[in-house]
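Q: Sequence in, structure out?
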Amino acid sequence: MLHNEFDPNPRAIINPEDCYRPVEGFPEICVGIFSRHILEWVLSAYGGEEISHFGCCLGPIPIYRVEAFGASAAVFLPLIGGPGAGGTLEESIPQGGKYFVYFGAAGVLNREVTHGKLLLPTAAIRDEGFSYHYLPPANEVELDLESVAACREALTALGYPFAEGKTWTTDAFFRETRDKTERRREQGCISVEMECASLAAVARFRGVRFAQFFYATDTLDGDGWDSGILHEKGRGLEEVCFRAAVETGKRMAGLAGRDGL
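A: Exactly. Output:
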């Protein structure tokens, strides 16, 4: 199978550093926000200077430097799905990024555990393709323990309720079948989304810190799909999520003395 063709050689024919150069003043803390509404709210509330962009067939994706909560962060809107989101992480590294926190919506697989809480993934089921180019074949990838701990500490210090567990990363939004959903729940998944396994794989391969958290929107834990607040795009959670992301990034940066990043 093609998924068994992992090549550990860090040099490819085309590399991120071939396309991007260091950007003066590029923050080491990077925050990827999977919500245009929340990104626009952040820029309105805290201001932001456009310092770079990602190249994209849809047009340039701006990267903003935002000063908030005693830190400087590179803030941007990632593309949806593993390849698009993973590309933003890859392309941030040669520009100066070292500590990555992404957040956005996720579907719920266990309503009893997750109700009214943010969701903190500790591992991701690799039901996508992107991660297999960065890590050997396996059913799941564990997120970096110290980065998860940094996010846990930030959420706890801020008093935000959260639930921890595995997440199911899938490429196919319209193929979340009942049998697959039950199987993922039995494997310990509390959420489903489309990027976490891919991002975690890139971060591990490139040796950078990465954490992610979600806000629950829709529910697959029941007889059918409950679209819930999916249409709200994170409205009402702007300050909560952005502050949690920046505080997590600050704690991740505090690990630098231990790992030399």
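The radius of gyration is 17 Å.
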